[in-house]
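Deliverable D4.2, example record:
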Amino acid sequence: MLSWVFIIVFMAFSPSASKKKGDFDLLKCSKVDVGKKENELKLPTGYRFSPDDDELVLFYLVNKILGRTLPITDVIKEIDLYENDPDQLPLDDYRHGTKCNEAYYFTNVEQIYSSEGKVTKRTTKGGYWKVTSEGKQVIYGDDKVVVGFKTSMLFNKGHVPAPKGSISSFVMHEYRVNPSIVPVDVLNDSIRAKIERFVVCKIVSKEASPAYKLPPELLSHGEDAKSN
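Output generated by the structure prediction step:
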């Protein structure tokens, strides 16, 4: 089911963004045809920004990387996310999602070399993000096109070797674009570099909503970390 925001965005912006079998075209499917200015949109009471994974990748991350129009420009901030602990981010950012406990950010990731080879830097000033699930495919449409990849993480406080540390109340999902879906005439060296280092992240705070519970696939990881 599409979220409120995309029901509205589709009506006001992009009638061409359908999910029909056999007609996938990245530039067409992610295109936003601006019909009204954002301040003219009449959002319903209780509006929440809660896009599906494929919508987040196609309409926001893809268009951000390609320098194209976004459906809404003031919801996802661009920050140096890994320079901040999640509890240092503005509390007001955690106002999205169906439970009003999600924050969304664009950020660059840093690739470093370790004994395990080339890895993504996940440390912050006060802790580190522990990967619990990596490489999950983000699927679009009836043709099940892989438009991106999703990595899920738990934030641990303190700079001690993983998997030890004090587990926090924050979960993050990091989304990357699948470079194979980008047309050859668009995929130059500059775009390749952006795809490799630029992501969109969704952080979920349990503290922002007492009713929030970890997704089932992450519960076992949390219990394992607590026992160490």
